[in-house]
Structure formats: C-alpha cells, structure tokens
Specification:
heterodimer; A: 357 residues; B: 201 residues; alpha+beta; 5 strands
C-alpha cells in the first residue's frame, strides 16, 4: 500500500505512512460502523424471532432494515451529558480508548490475501494485547462515572476479562502450534490448500480442533462481554454497568465496540479454524484477480458474520451466570480443559514429527 | 407438563466431568429450543395494519343509530358519570339534531346506557382505539349529520301540510256546524216547551 501510494502521490515516506494510516483508519471505521448497524439489526431480528415475535418491522419498509440507521441518527443528535461528580478527563477519554482498541485490532485481520492493513508476524499476540486495553477503558469509564453501579461493572469486567484471557490464549495455541505461526494471514494461507478446503477443523488434528474451537468460542463470549457472561452490564443488578452514565454518541461507542469485538472474535475463529478467506474451489480462480479478491472478502466476512450470528443465538438462549459461576467456569473448567488440549496438541505435533509425517 | 418430582434420595454429588457434560448438554438443548422458536411463525401481529378479532359483545366506542333515536334522554339519565349530552329541536315528530356527544375522558364503557334505550339505537361497538394528542378529541360526536336532512324536511313539510289541512278541515267543519246551528235556530225560533218538571216542594 505504501508503495502504491508513493507511485500515486510521490510524497516523502513519513507522509505516506500518515496518509496510509488515515486511509486505513477511515476504511476500518466505516466498516465497523456499518457492521455495528447490521449486527444490531440482526440481533434485534434474531432475538425477536427466537421469542416468537417479529422485531423491528416499520422503519425503512422491508423488515425494518433502516432501524439501526434511525437509531444511530438519534444517538448522534442526543445531548452529550457528563455527570456532575464525574472525573471529566477519564469520563471523556474512556469511550475513545475503547473504540480505538477495537478499531486497531482490525489492523491484522486478513480479509483476502491482499487486503490486510498490516501483516504482523505476532498477529494474534497483537490482537490479544490490544484487546486487553479495552478493559482499561472500561475501568476508566466505571471509575470516572462516580457511580457505584458503574464501578461494580468495571471491576467485574476487569476480573472477568483478565481471567478469560487465559483460556482464550491457550485455546488459540492449538492452531498456532499446528500451523507454526502467530500470523493470521500465514494461518489462513496454510488453510487454503486443496481447493480451499484444508481448514483446521478438517485437518488431521480435527479431534483437537473441534473441542478447541468450542473452548475458544466460549472464552470469546466471555471476552466480548456477551450473555451469558455479560456481568459488566447486568441490567438486573447494575443499572447498565459501566456505561450507566453515558449518553448519546459516547454510549454508542461502547456499543459499537461490543459488536466490533464480536466480529473480531468471529474473524479470529474464522482465520484459525474455519479456513480464513478460503472458499471451496479457491485455486480454480487466478490469485489476485478481482473475482478472487471479492470472493475471498465475501467468504471471510460471511464466516465471521455466521459466528457472530451464533453469538447472538447463544445470547438469546442462555440465562446470565452469577459472577462466581463465571469465575468458576473460567478457572476451574475452561483453563484445565484448554491445558489438556494444549498438551494433546503438542503431543500430536511431536508424534507427527517423530513419525516423520 | 410433568408434575414436580421430589427425589427420594439426595442427588448425587456433582463431579467435574459431570458438570462439563451437563453444561454442554444443557447448552445444546437450549440452542435447540431457541432454534425451534426461531423457525416457528411469530404469534404477534402488525397492529395498526392488522387487528385481532373482537368479540361481538365487546364494549368499545359507541355508535348511534341516529335515524331511529327519539331523543328521550334515557341513556343520558342512566349514565353513572354523566358523559352523554344531547341537543336537538323538535319539529313535530322529527328531531333536528345539533349534538350527541360522549365524553370518553369520563366514560368507563359500563354499557348502562344501552339497556334503557326504548328504541335500541345506542350500542357499544368493536372499535377500541382512540388515540389523541389533545383532550378535546376525547369528546366524541356520535352524530353522523346535524341539522335536517332533505327527507326530514320533506316529511316535516308533509306533516305541516297535513296539519294545515286538518286545521282547515276542522275550521270548515266548525264553521259548517256553526252555520247549521244558526240555521236550526233560525228555523225554530220558538223554543220547544220545557218538559214539565216535578215540583219539589
């Protein structure tokens, strides 16, 4: 991209980096904003139909497709309020930090072999490290709101996310060990062999891949604060958790972050387990051609959105856990299971190496 | 629905693997239930476009059969909250309507106005939606027209004609009677002798 811009504009390199970063930011921000709208609409429609009702039906005509647009316009026009006793700096900075971390994790997602902002070698490490910063933003929001409910929510978020980082990271070790790379693009490339169907869950280690995928999915639900793990914003106990005092667009940033994180987790699951951007019959098309790129992007986004839909489905199915149950599940169940699988995966890799396969 | 079964012996102590299996199984079953719900037809309807069927005896907003109403005020007198008001002029048997209002801020849909009606002309309908931004909108006019219709005018004119005719006939009859009487008087100037009365002495 930098080279392309240099040819196009002929600027100095540092300026090109800034321009490239700006273009990437705008692209990612636009993608995340549209994604959040679509995901909110999907959430309401799916939730409605699961509860044997219809969901939004009015705005925009066909099944209320413009409901999210109307809602976001409303949020944009709402008054931006800061409570009187709030720590103004923390209060105003928190949504920005949360949103910035959510956006910057999109940098490493390989939407197609060519379309990726930066192919970071330690891609999944980058994602895990950056997405943990979200917790700091949430704690800032909870502390800055000067509200007991907000602080409870923020503390729960901190405890929950810190404990679920362990099973999440461990469950990601299985594909990382199998493909020998931390990079999402390298893992996706490795899965696009044999007509684009050489996915990790269809590989020789499928008996590790499938349970590890479920463990990853559970930990991802907890990491993205989705029901049944949405303890930070339990509306039945804490009014709305850490974003109780927020209104308007600052609140919308927290909301967008949630859906961006859901898509991110779906995308990681796609990139490591479900073959990334690969699709059946991939190598029949010329790599780098327009159709190939479009189908790659479509495949990646479709798989990620399917995982996002499953997250929505789980949300409307399971009741919320208690905070002690959440912690028990994280430390006593997910972590040992992940450790067992890590040893099994390592043993399988060593076995293959020893047998010379 | 299965009745609640109280286990005779205490439940076995949950084991670690048992909990894992139970969690996976309950999640799976729950997802199946929500999937079936998702696939089923929604039970809700799109309200302003379609409405649920209403029973015939539903007590909704009134409707009045204005043509057969005789303005006897029986419904207004029966109303416990005095929400019915009417104004009309009588032209003989015909009524010239000005106002027949029900104040739905007061009305409680008790249907007591319906029973005393001698002509059975006021009813509670099936319409229940009465959305309004202002209070005066709840003062609902039940009349479909005010003033006199052409038919009524014709009928009133006929009635007047009949009345005039009758009056004329009556006057003519009276005049005739009078004339006859006068003629009789003239024909018999002498009064017939009085019958002799018994003396009461």
């Amino acid at each position: 991209m930098i080279e392309f811009l240099r040819d196009l504009l002929g600027f100095e390199t540092w300026l090109l980096v800034i321009v490239g970063a700006l273009i990437s930011f705008l692209a990612i921000f636009g993608f995340v904003a549209v994604l959040a709208m679509v995901a909110v609409w999907l959430e309401r429609k799916v939730g409605g139909h699961i509860q044997v009702r219809l969901g939004p039906m009015r705005v925009g005509g066909w099944h209320g497709w413009a409901q999210s647009i109307a809602d976001s316009l409303k949020l944009l026009m709402k008054e931006d309020m800061v409570v009187l006793g709030a720590d103004r700096v923390l209060f105003k900075l928190a949504p920005a930090i949360v949103m910035a971390t959510a956006l910057s994790t999109f940098v490493v997602l390989p939407f197609s072999p060519d379309l990726q902002v930066a192919d970071v070698d330690l891609g999944i490490f980058f994602v895990l490290a950056i997405s943990s910063i979200t917790t700091i933003g949430v704690v800032m929001a909870g502390w800055g709101s000067n509200n007991k409910w907000s602080l409870y929510g923020a503390m729960r978020e901190a405890a929950q996310v810190a404990s679920y980082e362990i099973p999440l990271g461990l469950s990601l070790m299985m594909p990382v060990m199998y493909y020998g790379t931390f990079s999402l693009k390298a893992a996706s490339d490795a899965q696009s062999g044999w007509y684009g169907m050489q996915w990790y869950i269809f590989s020789d280690a499928f008996w590790i891949a499938i349970p590890s995928f479920f463990l990853f999915f559970t930990a991802a639900l907890a990491e993205t604060k989705r029901t049944p793990f949405d303890l930070p914003e339990t509306e039945s106990e804490l009014v709305a958790g850490f974003h109780t005092e927020y209104s308007g667009m600052r609140w919308a940033f927290f909301f967008m972050e949630e859906y961006a994180a859901m898509f991110l987790m779906g995308a990681i699951g796609t990139a490591f387990w479900l073959g990334g951007y690969s699709f059946p019959g991939m190598n029949l098309l010329e790599a780098g051609s327009f159709l190939h790129t479009v189908l790659c992007i479509g495949s990646f986004v479709t798989k990620s959105m399917l995982l996002l839909l499953v997250m929505i489905w789980v949300r409307w199915t399971l009741p919320r856990l208690r905070i002690d149950q959440v912690m028990t599940m994280g430390y006593k169940y997910l972590t040992p299971l992940c450790l067992i699988l890590v040893f099994m995966a390592a043993g399988w890799e060593y076995f293959k190496f020893a047998m010379g396969w | 629905m299965a009745s609640l079964q109280i286990p005779k012996e205490p439940l076995p102590k949950p084991t670690w693997w048992g909990n894992v299996c139970a969690g996976v199984k309950s999640t799976w079953v729950g997802l199946g239930i929500t999937w079936r719900n998702f696939r089923s037809t929604p039970v809700t309807i799109q309200y302003p476009d379609e409405a649920l069927p209403i029973d015939a005896r539903y007590r909704g907003i009134h409707f009045l059969e204005q043509d057969i109403c005789i303005g006897c005020q029986a419904c207004a007198k029966a109303c416990p909250v005095d929400c019915i008001e009417m104004e009309y002029d009588r032209h003989g048997k015909e009524l010239e309507w000005f106002k027949f209002t029900v104040d739905y801020e007061k009305c409680m849909f008790c249907e007591l106005c319906v029973y005393p009606c001698p002509k059975d002309c006021i009813h509670l309908g099936s319409d229940y939606s009465m959305v309004s931004e202002t209070k005066p909108m709840f003062l609902k006019e039940l009349l479909s027209y005010t003033g006199l219709t052409e038919e009524q005018k014709v009928r009133i004119a006929k009635a007047d004609e009949l009345k005039k005719k009758k009056a004329a006939e009556k006057a003519a009859k009276k005049a005739a009677e009078k004339a006859a009487k006068e003629a009789e008087e003239a024909a018999a100037p002498e009064a017939p002798p009085e019958p002799p009365t018994k003396e009461k002495e």
